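job 3f2a | input accepted
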Amino acid sequence: MAGATTAQRGTPSSDRPGRSPRKGAGSPKPPKSPKSSKAPKRTAPQGPGAHLRRGPVLASLAAAVLLASGGTWVLYGSSWLRVERVTAAGTEVLTPEQVLSAAAVPVGAPLVSVDTDEIESRVRGRLPRIESVDAVRAWPHGIGLKVTERKPVLLIKKDANFVEVDASGVRFDTVPKAPAGVPVLELNAADSPSARRFDEDRLLHEAVLVAGSLPAPIAKETVQVKVGSYDSIVLELTGGRSVRWGSGEQSDAKGRALTALLKAAPKAAHFDVSVPTAPAAAGS
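job 3f2a | predicted structure (284 res):
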C-alpha cells in the first residue's frame, strides 16, 4: 500500500485531470496568422539595358530642340526669308506707287514678322478711295497687295470741284473734273413741304440709292439726278430726255421698267416709272 501511495504522489501535476497545463518551454506555440500579401513595388529598370533605352529618347528630344531653334533662326535671324519685293494690283484711278507708299511695308524685315492687318489698315486710312485691300505674304521674299477702289455713283458739286460719292453714300474724294458717266446731284428741296421730315442727308441717301441702282447702260446716259423732295426725283438723260422716278423705293423695278421703255420708245423724250408696274413714255 505504501508503494502505491508513493507512486500517486510522484505523478506530475500536468497529468492530473481538471487542471490546465502550465506554460513552459515545452508548451506548443499558437500558429501565427498569415500577413496580408502586398503587390511588389515596381522599380525603374537598372543596368546597361535601361541606359540603352533612354538614349534614343534623349537624342530625339535634343534633335527636336535643335530643329525648333534652327527653324526660328531661319524665320527671324537669317537673310533667306526677308521682304525684298512689294507689289500692288487692282488700281484704276490710283497708281501702284501710291498704294505702295501708303502701305509702307518694311523692306528687309523678316517676312514672318510683317503685320498684314496693320498694312491693310494703313492703306485704307491713307487712301479713302480704297474700299478694300488684301495683303498676303508671297514666300520667300514678297508681299502682295490686292486693292479694290470705290466707284462713284453720284457727284456733288462743290465750288469748282466735284465730290465723289459711292453706292454706300461714302464721300471718298474731291476731283477737279467730273468723271465720265457719273451723274451730278442737284438738290432743290428747300421749299419742299417734307423738308422738315426729310433733311438733306436723307435726300442725299435717296439720290445715292437711285443712282446706285441704275442699270449700267442707263447710268452712263444719266447727266443729273434732281431731287425736289423725298418722292420727287427726276433723272436728266443725254439728248434732253427726262425720267420721272418718284421716290427711291422699288428702284430696281423702276430700272427694269425704264430699260424696257427706252427700247420700246427710243424716240420718246419723257418717261415715267414712278409706278413701275404702269410705266409711261411721251413726247418725241
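job 3f2a | The mean pLDDT is 81.
job 3f2a | closed
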